[in-house]
Each structure stands twice: as C-alpha cells, then as structure tokens.
Amino acid sequence: MSVYAVIPAAGTGERFGAPVPKPLVELCGRPVLAHTLAVFEQCAGIDGIILVVHPRYHQEYSALVARYGFSRVTAVVDGGATRSASVRNALRALPAQASCVIVHDSVRPLVTPELISQGLALAAVDRAAIAAVPVKPSLKLVDPQTRLVRETLDRSLVWDIQTPQVFERNLLERAHAQDFVADDDSALVEKCGVPVRVYMGDYKNIKITTAEDLLVARAFMEAAVKEPHVSARLV
Predict the structure, then answer these.
(1) CATH class for domain 3-231?
(2) Prediction pTM value
(3) 233 has a pLDDT exceeding 60
C-alpha cells in the first residue's frame, strides 16, 4: 500500500486577524504548518506529502518546505476557491502508485504519529476512517429565527470530527467527482453511501481557528516539553 498525505493550507486566514495565513503564524518558534509537517515526516508509513497552498503565498510555503528540509513533500500545488477544490487539485498531483490518501488540516499541529497510524490500519479494512472525540458540553438544537430550543441532543451520539481522515484513493476520488457540497472529505464519502469508521481522536488535536486556539496549542506544547508525562494525560 502506497500512502500519501494531502495537507490543505490554501486559506488566507483573514478572520484570524494575522498578517499572514494561519499555517504561517508562529507557534513556539516555528510556523504552525512546520509542526504539522514534522509529524508526517516522522511517520514511517507515509510515502509522500502533497501540500496545497494559496497561490498568493506559494513562494512562502515552498521556502518553508526547503527551510525545514521536509523531504517527503513531493509537491506544492495551488489550491482552489474552496477546500474541496483544493483537495481535488491535490488528488490530481498524486502519483499513479498511491493507493491510500490521508487528508489532514494544516492547522492541527498537535496530531500524533499514533493517530495517523491508527487511521491507516482501520482504512485498510474499512476503506474510510476518521478521527473524532465525543463532545463534552450539553448540546441543544435551536431555531435560528426564534432562538427557542427545538431539541436537547443526546451527546453520547455526537462526536467532534477531526483529522486525520484516511481513505482508499479510488473512493476519495469518486466522492470528489460527485456534485456534492460538504464541510469535509468524510461527508463527501458518506454522500456516496459508503460507511465511514470513526476512531478515537485526541482532545489535544485541536484545529487553530482563532487566536485563543493558538494560546491553547502553545500551552499544550510547552507542557509537553516541561512535563511530558503530565501532558500526555491532559484532555
């Protein structure tokens, strides 16, 4: 099985409020993306990485790859107008021998090799596997107009979806060939009628969306350096 990772980093991050896209924002001395790519670099099961970037910042991302010596990044391709379009561009750049694709958010720098490996093992059997964690808060379905509660959801049935998301290549390509609109690659596969296996992710595997998330990620990383045994138990 030949495994390639697709790392979408094509957004501009305007809502974040930084002068550069979120993947290029500094976190503990390195760009967020550098932390993410470093994890995939050390994964023995990864044969290559396709990095998808905003055309405006193509040079900056290529320079980052060269600066940190990420030898498994086999291509830096321009993204599209949407995340799905960006992933499709990456799929076109895959070599013929690639049989399995991992899609992972560029701004989830706290992913671990174990999470990636677990997804690969499950996808080899089930064709599609995604990391997720059970939600902690109580959840209510609220009418968008009246702001009245419609329903209190059973939180034992609700999971917070993360990446990595791992798919058989042919399956992911077929899902992206359909005229579907979805928030993530798993949803596209689900719309094709294919069951998706959910496996336990990590509460530390956060997606950096706001400045507050950056502070949380920094705290996790600093704790891992100072007290690795304590940090491993944090959720």
Answers:
(1) alpha beta
(2) 0.93
(3) no
